[in-house]
């Protein structure tokens, strides 16, 4: 919290949703919780901008409403910031989009894993694959090159 005379900092959090939820559903829930923040729907969920205390409170309440389907992280730049805006950069995907896309693809599996852990399941240890011997690896490379030369 900001002390008397200081202004509380403004932050932006990304609310990334997993599988069956729609951004509009989460946005409606967010609007019911508070009107003291700016809520922007996105293809992956929401961006919430406002005073740190209000954004954190809203994020926590949304997470409590959908504990295994909402993932939240603080964004380094506010919505529309010229350093990130595609219009100012000449188009193309925004920086970080490809990482976010990869994260979105695995969220349904993470959500299922969270449910299983909550139900008391424990992970099954997976055997670690053994590294291939360097000499064997060289043999494979050489035989592949030889086959390519023969064709």
In short:
The chain has 151 residues and is α+β, with helices and mostly antiparallel strands. The protein has 5 helices and 4 strands; from the N terminus they run βαββαβααα. It has a single domain, classed as Alpha-Beta Plaits.
Protein model, in words:
With 151 residues, this protein is an alpha+beta fold. The protein has a single domain (10-118), classed as Alpha-Beta Plaits. It is 45% helix and 17% strand. The chain contains five helices and four strands. It has helices at 23-33, 52-65, 86-89, 97-118, 134-150; strands spanning 10-17, 38-41, 45-51, 70-75. Strands 2-3-1-4 form a four-stranded antiparallel β-sheet, with helices on one face. The protein starts with 9 loop residues before the first strand and ends with a helix. The model has no long low-confidence stretch (mean pLDDT 86). This is Methanogenesis marker protein 6.
């Amino acid at each position: 919290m900001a002390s008397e005379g200081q202004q509380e900092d403004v932050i932006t959090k990304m609310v990334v949703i997993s599988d069956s939820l729609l951004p509009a559903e989460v946005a409606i829930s967010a609007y019911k919780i508070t009107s003291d923040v700016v809520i922007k729907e996105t293809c992956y969920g929401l961006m919430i901008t406002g005073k740190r205390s209000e954004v954190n409170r809203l994020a926590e309440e949304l997470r409590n409403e959908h504990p295994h389907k909402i993932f939240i992280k603080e964004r380094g730049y506010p919505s529309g910031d010229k350093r990130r805006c595609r219009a100012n950069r000449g188009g193309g995907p925004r920086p970080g989009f490809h990482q976010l896309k990869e994260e979105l693809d695995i969220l349904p599996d993470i959500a299922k894993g969270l449910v299983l852990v909550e139900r008391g399941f424990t992970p099954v240890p997976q055997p670690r694959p053994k590294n291939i011997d360097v000499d064997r690896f060289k043999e494979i490379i050489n035989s592949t090159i030889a086959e390519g030369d023969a064709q």
